[in-house]
Write the structure tokens for this entry.
Amino acid sequence: MPPKLYLHIGINKTGTSAIQRYLSSHRAELVRESVLYPVTGRAGEAHYGLSRALGFAHGKPPVNAQELERLRSALLEEMRASDAQSVILSSEDFVLRGDIARVREFLSAFDCRIVVYLRRHDHWWLSSYNQAVKMVANPPWEPGINAYLQFCRKRKSARASHRELLERWAEVFGVPAICVRPYEAAQNEGGVVADFLRTTGLAELAAGAAGSSERVNESLAGDVVHILDLVQRARISPRMRETLKIKLLAERVA
């Protein structure tokens, strides 16, 4: 039987940063459970290097076949060296437009499961706006969440339709391989990290992680978002903008 591989594709704003932080910082515990969270393809705590190489990135083409084969060989060698029986990969950039058949080919040595968390659209868009205000200086939309929503609507965001996303992945990997989880506190017993660990067959680690995982990339209170939006639009130097952002984010209220 081929080794099992769980590919966590997001979506973003569904606890992905917390899941990736846990997987990255608990690699030793995972290996003891015969599970590898590879260094290969990682950029920081997530596998953004891998998703970019496969063509899931804003405005960047996939790498050539030779480089992709080098990456695949490195992944397989890391797994052999670890003696792990299964693998977890995670990058929310896999929800972007890209050739999913290329992902299937790259992971052909594995029995794949695609793990995705879905969040109510009204909650997701509010969190997305919050994140956009944090990240984007001199934003191309007018102030306020309504203007942000109109801007995203014109761009036809790839995250606007859960069904379309799931159908694209199911068409390539098959419906049984798609594991859909709700991003809902009432249904993620012990938190989203514990839920993810249970979903990937790590019930014992899930029990230890329940209720203890740190909050990562938290949302900001409304007044902080408003002030930060003013800072992002102000005609000031990038250095001054970053200094003010750091101060505001240090004062954030979830």
